């Protein structure tokens, strides 16, 4: 029994760390999960291609949850599924603000369902919720990050309430996207929630703008507020503002994303290329997570 799925990374419109309401958009960069299930051995093992020391608890827990729900004798007969192995391969740098954890969880949940021939037994929103449950269990998230998970699962841009894991709004968007990823990492679980709560009034304004569909201005206000709250230099935002309306720190950093038309983003790239790390010109993604 083998299944495979690919989930897109995402960028931030509104960081949920202040109010637990967030907004994110899917981008055309992927994490792929391959899952093999067995009826012979007990337990689930995980592997991240090219990163032998990576923490695999999130993807293992995702497989376990899907087996618990859909791998029993009533679904697959006897013997039922008892274990498996999951391997991820990713273009999305880990812990860089581009929602690597949500992409890994979504790809793994859908790949496990694919291995069970059961992708039609769950709604896509519920698949994202299962990944969020696993992320909460293993402690890789601050709020559950349903904003990131839903954007990566459904594609387009979503606005969510991460306390009850509901989608408040979803739209498809067609933007070019510039990403700058510095060499450092920044784990969401280590973010200073107390400092983020200080910018809650600004986060509520960003939410209003996002729910009005004014995503790009929302993003920029978010970027300035969360650079201050999370201790990141806001100069990358200022570099971009002569050229685009939408630019922000993504997730809990250190990556930044800018959105707009390609010519404007090429001008931003000239400025961001002087910084250490890598820049990438890509686009938004509207299909979300898919079997591969
Ligand atoms: N390709 C992957 N395969 C397996 N697990 C992964 C993968 N990518 C990320 N993870 C898990 O997610 C954790 C990083 O989560 P974290 O939320 O800090 O990063 P992020 O999602 O990239 O950041 P942000 O939420 O700011 O965008 C890793 O420690 C690992 O547990
Ligand atoms: O771990 C979390 O709860 C989050 C992490 C970041 O990606 C944020 O951008 C997101 O809104 C919530």
TrEMBL record:
Pathway: Metabolic intermediate biosynthesis; chorismate biosynthesis; chorismate from D-erythrose 4-phosphate and phosphoenolpyruvate: step 5/7. It catalyses: shikimate + ATP = 3-phosphoshikimate + ADP + H(+). It holds the Pfam family GHMP_kinases_N. Its EC number is 2.7.1.71. One of its GO terms (cellular component) is cytoplasm. It comes from the Archaea. GO terms for molecular function: ATP binding; shikimate kinase activity. Keywords: Amino-acid biosynthesis, Aromatic amino acid biosynthesis, ATP-binding, Cytoplasm, Kinase, Nucleotide-binding, Transferase. Residues 58-156 form the GHMP kinase N-terminal domain. It is found in: Cytoplasm. ATP binds at residues 93-103. Its main location: cytoplasm. One of its GO terms (biological process) is amino acid biosynthetic process. Belongs to the GHMP kinase family. Archaeal shikimate kinase subfamily. This is Shikimate kinase. It comes from Haloarcula salina. The gene is aroK.
